[in-house]
Amino acid sequence: MSEILRLQEYEYAEIVVECTISKLISKCGGNEPGPKVKTKFRPRTNKGLRQVHPNALIQAIYSIRGKYNIPIHFAENRKAAEEWVLGTLKKYYKGKRG
Questions:
Q1: What pairs with residue 49 in β-bridges?
Q2: What is the pTM of this model?
Q3: In angstroms, rounded to a whole number, what is the distance separating the alpha carbons of residues 71 and 10?
Q4: Is 53 helix (H, G, I), strand (E, B) or coil?
Q5: What stretches of 1-98 show up as alpha helix (H) in DSSP?
Q6: Which range marks the domain in which residue 33 is found?
Q7: Maximal C-alpha separation, the chain
Q8: Residue 97 is assigned to a structural domain of this protein
Q9: Which distant-in-sequence residues (6+ apart) come within 8 Å of 28 by Cβ?
Q10: pLDDT tens digits for range 39-67
């Protein structure tokens, strides 16, 4: 969570995920362990990744948005994520310029 705490230091921060939330959850397969994600908080499997239970994933998303007030945007793919980031940065810059 140290990365999340560092994001709070910025004037604006957002997390963009290159996957829809439904795809992410469906990869979790109900009660089965889900997609492998990088983490520093639990024992790691090969290549620094571990399985995540879908409920833990959902709760982490809620926590980041609610507790830390950092928006999370789920994009269909990398191109959609890039377009989202570019649009967000343009709006932010335009707002700062007045």
A1: 38
A2: 0.70
A3: 13
A4: coil
A5: 2-7, 21-28, 54-66, 78-97
A6: 2-8+16-92
A7: 50
A8: no
A9: 34, 35, 52, 53, 54, 57
A10: 444 444 545 556 678 888 889 899 999 99
